[in-house]
User: Fold these one by one.
Assistant:
Number 1:
Amino acid sequence: MKCPFCSHSETQVVETRISEDGDFIRRRRQCGACEKRFTTYERPDVSFPSIVKKDGRRIDYERSKLMASMQLALRKRPVSTEQIDSAIERIEERLHNLGLREVPSTRIGELVMRELRKLDKVAYVRFASVYRSFEDIDEFKTLVDEVRR
């Protein structure tokens, strides 16, 4: 594997860990030239359904988009990267298990909200307030009241 810092082609695996659920392998690597360390993840390559946006466009599933939206909601919250990775793995597993060729983006939004609610209530409210496009403060208050229960 090529070093992301200096592009040297020889790196050494210094530590390997299997995730708790066994869905991926995390490897710590060290560059032979600059000696910097970095992490890689090894997971099976599976095809995901196309995502159907609200306007009817179809796009390919991108893990990075899902990760970015969850990280934005979880910004400055006490949730580890491992917890986020596990939540994304659960979402991807559900998408794969649906067995569909196309999935509406709203379905993914609901899956994200379910995971965020388990991880962090504040992040859940942040995501839901944008995702559901609240028009007034009463809708927001209803969501907060629902979370408090």
Number 2:
Amino acid sequence: MYTIPELDAHLKQAGADYALIEQAAPIRSASDAAPYYDITKAAPTFVLQSDRGLIACILSGNRGRLDFEDLKARFGFSRLKMADRKKVQAQTGYTVGSIPLIGLELDCIFDDSLLAFDYIYGGTGDELVTLKIRPADVKRLNRVFGVL
């Protein structure tokens, strides 16, 4: 689990193209995010419970709802659902609602449609800071095992 200074140092060391955007209040909806960034470039990180344990799923906010049956078929899971909030916090140290794009240390599914954007925006682990980053850096800095 990274603090914001640790995340900043990690991203600098990795040569990522990014910025940390501070906001006065947590972002809970598209209307909350609109003053800070282009919401069509939002990339939420979901934590899913599979038969192989917890996995991260970084998707374009434009994709809509998660299709668990499709994900199960594509990646060979027998079970797949949203992970329990308490289990996510216990295993990752992060609370649901502030899951980071970088630093989860979970295997990850990445939405390749995000690569069409110059930058994407997502969590940092701190509900008052948003990460602006090149999508290729997000893909490179996670343990991606599958792409959509």
Number 3:
Amino acid sequence: MSLAEAPSPTLHLHGFFRSSTSFRVRVALNLKGLAYDQSTYVLRMGEQRGDAYLSINPQGLVPTLDSPQGPISQSLAIIEWLDETYQKPALLPEDAWGRARVRSLAHMVALDVHPINNLRVLFYIRDEFGADDDAQATWFKHWANLAFEALETRLAKEPETGVFCQGDTVTLADICLAGQVVNNRRFGVDLAPYPTIQRIFNACMALPEFQDAMPDNQPDAG
């Protein structure tokens, strides 16, 4: 189903245009051809800590997806719910090994890199330890590069890698990888040492579902 053919919105996404986790969910929604509307929160202003949003997500983090059954937080949980509820196109392989590999690659970004480079962590090392903008960027680059070195090694050597992280179709791993590459750009992380990641990212960016999810194309980007 194309985006133009998508049904009227039944899903509501709470997010922020620059949030890489929100980016992940936007891509998944687009790939599924699902219409949705959005509420956005300026994270640097702490809007996600307001009472109204905390009543939906007590962590005060984005994204949250309002589903027909209620709100779902955490981007990976949201995407897996979407994949189980709206099964085509599948974002996880059919076989157990393929699913494990895709989750492993996705978790290298979503569980190992993003949490320690999250805005609230950068604010904490700024406020508690006096880390200025340059120090925060150094912190970010260290962890991003550490993960990308391992990801590049795996993606370049493992036979399951194709056009995308797992064969020739987009999976959860590509969604997480692309979101991290977009986030890395803000901190000047050089992709030159990672040609396989760059190639996969370019393949993702050739798809309108990824382009439409990009931060600059969101209503709150202005």
Number 4:
Amino acid sequence: MKKRILDYRGKIDNLLEENAPDTDWEAVLSEHLVQIGFFQHERLVHLLVTLAFALFTILTILAGLVMESVMLLGLTVAFLVLLVPYIMHYYLLENETQKMYVQYDNILVHIQTAKIGRELQQEE
């Protein structure tokens, strides 16, 4: 997922930077909204998984304090080892999705600019 979101965002950044006159910005916008939806769904799923692992970690820490069990200490360590990558991945998804919102706004600017350009050509 990391590669996919970074590749896609890079592709859109390149389109925005190139600003080729033959770019169909309406189609780009439509596809971008679909991709944002996919990544928002992925972000929600990872948020729920991350919260679950955080809750399990806290519960095993509390149970370990009450029961003083070595097994619970091992389970706590296992949850912590899994929680850190989940947090890092969620952080990536959150930030990249936020950057995609900025791209969305920039695509809208390109659509408006193209529309104004067409109107000016029709007036001539």
